[in-house]
Amino acid sequence: MRNLWNLITQYHIALVFFALQALALGWFVSSHGYPRGKWVQRSLAWQGAWNQQMGQWSRLVELDALNRELLAENAKLRSSMYRTENTGREISIHSAQVVRFTWTSSANHFILNQGSKNGLKPGMGVSQNGIALGRIIEASDHFSLALPIINQEVEWSARIGSAGPVARLLWDAHDIGRAQLQDLPRSATFSPGDSVLTSGFQGYFPAGMLIGWIADETPEFDGQFLTIGIELAADFRSLNYVEAMSIMDWESIEALSQSTPNSGS
């Protein structure tokens, strides 16, 4: 206490000076319109900037939650739509987010932030907004590994239009926006811009999902079959939220297709 009193005694002139300066500044700001207005303006600007930043953070959190709800609702609607289009076949759809994707190699892949704990499993097709992207080949508890159409080691079954010929769809590792439809019969009729759709024969996708369009270029002919260029509908550089789908009765179909009738029956 003695030290505090000695300090006040030693610096009392400076303390009185600062106290009088504070009183004078307060009186000046409160009694003059211009300084008061400037002070209020600055205070409002700082407070407004802070509130705006906090509001943006809050909206981002709310938008993320809302986006997840919309994705789940969209998955339900697509399940219903595909069930109607595929004569009542049960199709389960789960939403997921792409957390890693490669597009610069011949064996590209992508990883989803959902796994077996969330209902994802190998053999499920992956799509975005009704466009076929690839298929899941491995699943851990919380992540899944999928191969996209732009993987040179994978081939797909595709059809020209809803009732056209079925052929093999392959990527030639040159352009992530293009692929090839091979082994088309020479009698096949088609035009540039015609839709190329999933055939539904592999079990990854229901029939009729968009893959791309026939490119405006001359088909190649090897003497037996045609090869035509395809412009892929998916933008693989901007993948984010996707859907993984499973055709519920496909295992039963596979079991029937692999069984052979007994010779004595």
Averaged pLDDT: 78
Q: Rg, please?
A: 33 Å
End-to-end C-alpha gap: 110 Å
Going across the major beta sheet, what is the strand order? Answer: 1-2-5-4-3-13
Strand content: 25-35%
Q: Looking at the structure, what is the overall shape?
A: elongated
Number of E-state strands: 13
Major sheet description: 6 strands, antiparallel, barrel
- CATH homology superfamily of the domain at 90-247: Rod shape-determining protein MreC, domain 1
In DSSP terms (H or I, runs of 4 or more residues), the helix count works out at: 4
What is the CATH level 1 assignment of the domain at 90-247? Mainly Beta
Q: What order do the SSEs take from the amino end to the carboxyl end, as H and E?
A: HHHEEEEEEEEEEEEEH
| Percent helix range | 25-40%
CATH architecture of the domain at 90-247: Beta Barrel
Show the helix and strand layout.
Elements: H1 2-10, H2 12-31, H3 33-85, E1 91-101, E2 110-112, E3 125-128, E4 131-139, E5 144-148, E6 156-160, E7 166-170, E8 178-185, E9 195-198, E10 210-214, E11 220-221, E12 225-232, E13 241-247, H4 250-258
Antiparallel strand pairs: 1-2, 1-13, 2-5, 3-4, 3-13, 4-5, 6-7, 6-9, 7-8, 8-12, 9-10, 10-12, 11-12
Helix pairs in contact: 2-3
